[in-house]
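Severity: low
Component: inverse-folding endpoint
Summary: output formatting inconsistent between runs
Steps to reproduce: submit the following structure tokens with default settings.
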């Protein structure tokens, strides 16, 4: 159950990391013991990517023991930072020599967030946990240390990440059940589980998760969507396919589960030239920036995606676009940039729906995300504010 510890600089760095996380995610002796035992460097053996800027946009530079020198590299591995380990579903730090463009598709999550979620999940001795999104395997290993490998199953969608995680987890001395596949389908063969924890986000809770977690068990996941709104929710499973739970504090976000990723927007220039109704906007683009308003906007317009454009010499325009039915809302600033006009086209008035949700929230006193609850029943999945009889938003199916 215990990872090999070297007693050298890495062991010292693990202690330092645990000290730093104390009160910032880490709350218990049991999880502290896991943090001080599991060698994070083993889960990023060929390094990670550091984000940077170039004239052509974001680039990612490989950070490896060779580029940095082992001691400096180890210090970075034990920073409370997310370590991006894969770009575009296939590029790893060992594959490239210098900065490359790309989008992160796998990582070792911010340690303070990993332990905070493990503390929130709070599995007890003997509990069986299903993890969705093995990633590097670091969080899987922490759970193996705490609960014993026989009590942990982890599913990773990406074949290359799954293979790397298997090697790292095995090398660190743990033997959980590891599955390469779609975590949205869960693990029927290992069910029932006491808890499910997802380190990728979902737009809607998969039925399989509900079926595979026992009555009274819990599901901890981020609910996200195509506008990049997000919220961490802790559900308790009830009878007959029901579950309910409130959103937890904090601004927690994860990459979306791959099968639920947004459809490609493609070239929308013709779509945005379609006829549109114009009116003054009551709420501007800040709705798509601020944490709780963005979450609400996404609940109100779950098919919408964000796009910013600028025509030469013109103002920056913010669009919400539902590419599936061709609906769009474009926020156009006035000359002084203080107020906005909204142009809406297609079958759905996206901005009307978004503003209505913001109105409900503001009428309730603009409460934090913890005032929202997610409820699942045979009738569907709904998020409500304060009490279930208040206006609510149905999650996409
Ligand atoms: C943020 S990383 C996981 C971090 C990991 N727990 C760690 O500590 O290293 C998210 C992972 O979820 C995986 N993922 C995305 N969609 C998935 C799905 N449907 N089923 C299982 N894994 C998925 C991604 O490939 C990625 O490796």
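Observed output (run 2 of 3):
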């Amino acid at each position: 159950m215990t990872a090999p510890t070297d007693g050298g600089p890495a062991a010292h760095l693990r202690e330092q990391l645990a000290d730093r996380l104390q009160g910032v995610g880490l709350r218990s002796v049991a999880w502290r013991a896991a943090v001080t035992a599991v060698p994070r460097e083993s889960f990023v053996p060929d390094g990670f990517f550091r984000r940077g800027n170039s004239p052509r946009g974001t680039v990612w530079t490989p950070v490896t023991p060779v580029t940095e020198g082992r001691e400096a590299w180890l210090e970075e591995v034990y920073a409370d930072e997310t370590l991006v380990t894969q770009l575009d579903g296939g590029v790893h730090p060992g594959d490239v020599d210098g900065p490359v463009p790309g989008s992160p598709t796998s990582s070792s999550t911010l340690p303070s967030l990993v332990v905070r979620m493990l503390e929130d999940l709070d599995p007890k001795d003997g509990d069986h946990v299903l993890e969705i999104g093995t990633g590097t395997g670091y969080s899987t290993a922490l759970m193996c240390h705490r609960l014993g490998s026989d009590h942990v199953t982890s599913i990773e969608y990406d074949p290359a990440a799954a293979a790397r995680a298997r090697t790292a987890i095995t090398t660190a001395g743990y033997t959980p059940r590891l599955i390469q596949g779609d975590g949205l389908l869960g693990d029927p063969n290992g069910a029932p589980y006491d808890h499910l924890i997802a380190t990728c986000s979902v737009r809607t809770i998969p039925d399989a998760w509900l079926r595979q977690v026992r009555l009274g068990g819990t599901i901890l996941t981020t609910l996200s969507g195509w506008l990049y709104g997000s919220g961490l929710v802790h559900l308790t499973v009830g009878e007959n396919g029901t579950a309910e739970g409130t959103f937890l504090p904090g601004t927690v976000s994860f990459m979306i589960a791959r099968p639920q990723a947004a459809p490609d927007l493609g070239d929308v220039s013709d779509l945005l030239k379609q006829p549109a109704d114009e009116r003054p906007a009551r709420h501007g683009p800040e709705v798509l920036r601020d944490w709780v308003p963005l979450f609400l906007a996404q609940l109100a317009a779950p098919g919408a995606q964000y796009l910013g454009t600028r025509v030469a010499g013109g103002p920056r325009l913010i669009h919400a676009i539902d590419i599936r039915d061709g609906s769009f809302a474009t926020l156009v600033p006035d000359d002084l940039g203080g107020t906005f006009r909204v142009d809406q086209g297609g079958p759905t008035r996206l901005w009307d729906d978004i503003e209505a949700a913001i109105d409900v929230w503001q009428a309730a006193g603009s409460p934090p995300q913890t005032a929202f609850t997610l409820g699942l029943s045979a009738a569907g999945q709904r998020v409500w504010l304060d009490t279930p009889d208040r206006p609510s938003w149905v999650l996409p199916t």
